Each structure stands twice: as C-alpha cells, then as structure tokens.
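Handout, section B. The chain below has 119 residues.
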Amino acid sequence: MVKTLPQKHSFSIGDTDVVSVDFTKRLDASEVIDSAAVVGVDDDSELSIGSVQVNSAAYDDELQPDARGNAATVAIGKAVHFTLSSSATLETEYTIKVTATSDRSPARVLVRYLKLVFK
C-alpha cells in the first residue's frame, strides 16, 4: 500500500538537513528494514538527496509523541535516514518517494511519499 504522509515538511532555502522516515508501525516487531531508496518524484533537478541509510542507532522522534506526549523512540532498523538540500532560490515544493525493503521472507516493500517545501 502506498501512503502519502499528510503533513508538509518545511525547510529553509539553503538548508542541508537530515530527514528520517519511521516505518515502525508498518513493520512486525522482529522485522527490520534491510535496504532503502529515496528519489524525487517531481522535476527535481534542484533537489539533492544523499546518504540514504537504515538507522543504525535508536533515536527519539519528536514529531511522533507517545501516549504521554514524549518523543517516541524509534528502534534500530525501523527508519530510513537521508540528507536533503535544494538549490532553489524561490519557494519550491517537492514530492519524494521513500522505499524500504524488509528483511522478512518474502521481503515486503513499503513506500511512503513525502511533501516538502523549501522556502
């Protein structure tokens, strides 16, 4: 199932930032991401995506609070990290596709679309 995440993430023009996409809710408890890919969907000649990797350390995700309102901890192997930048000089919106392949046999391929704006 392909899912477009509802929120639009904003970055300042000139930023190079690390983006993380958490797949925890789509993975079984013992299942982890084996490989990942990130690509621009739109005319992305100004968009730079690099350093795509599966998270190798747990981290706290402040955008996804737990039931108590604290940042949720994302376990090792449950998210995809990548760097993102744009050479745009005017406000520009992009859609990117994040694909994660699980270690399950047969492997599952999970896809998320993110809307981003540099302004």
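Note. The chain is about 0% helix and 60% strand. Compare this with the example in section A.
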